[in-house]
Amino acid sequence: MSIVTFCGHKEIADTSTVRAAVDEILCGLVAEGADYFLLGGYGGFDSRWREFR
Fold first, then answer.
1. Per-residue pLDDT, 46
2. Are 3 and 32 in contact (CB under 8 A)?
3. Which residue would you say has higher pLDDT here, 10 or 21?
4. Cα 23 off chain centre by
5. CA of 21: how far to CAs of 1, 16, 48, in Å?
6. Is 53 part of a structural domain of the chain?
7. Cα–Cα distance between 34 and 3 in angstroms, integer?
8. What is the chain's alpha carbon radius of gyration, rounded to the nearest angstrom?
9. Residue 2's closest CA among 42, 32, 47, 26?
10. pLDDT in tens, 25-45
11. What CA–CA distance (Å, rounded) separates 24 from 22?
12. Would 17 be classed as within a structural domain?
């Protein structure tokens, strides 16, 4: 089991650059075996990736 945690900000810039970078990182983590993700649940950053697939 590999655990990934998110600790983001209340608000993030809604840019395609930020989204693309984090999506790429998450895909890499999943490919390496990450299978458990913990989200703080506060703010735009955490909630953006709550439904990542």
1. 67
2. no
3. 21
4. 7
5. 24, 8, 13
6. no
7. 6
8. 11
9. 32
10. 889 999 999 988 887 777 777
11. 5
12. yes
And the tokens for 4?
Answer: 């990934």
Give domain status of residue 44, yes or no.
Answer: yes
Number of structural domains (the chain) is 1
- State the Cα angle at 14 between 17 and 38, rounded to 5°: 90
Query: pTM score, two decimals?
Result: 0.69
C-alpha distances (whole Å) from 18 to each of 2, 10, 21, 25, 35 are 23, 15, 5, 11, 22
Residue 29's Cβ-count burial label (10 Å; 0-12, 13-18, 19+) is middle
Give 1-53 as a DSSP string. Answer: --EEEE---S-----HHHHHHHHHHHHHHHHTT--EEEE---HHHHHHTTT--
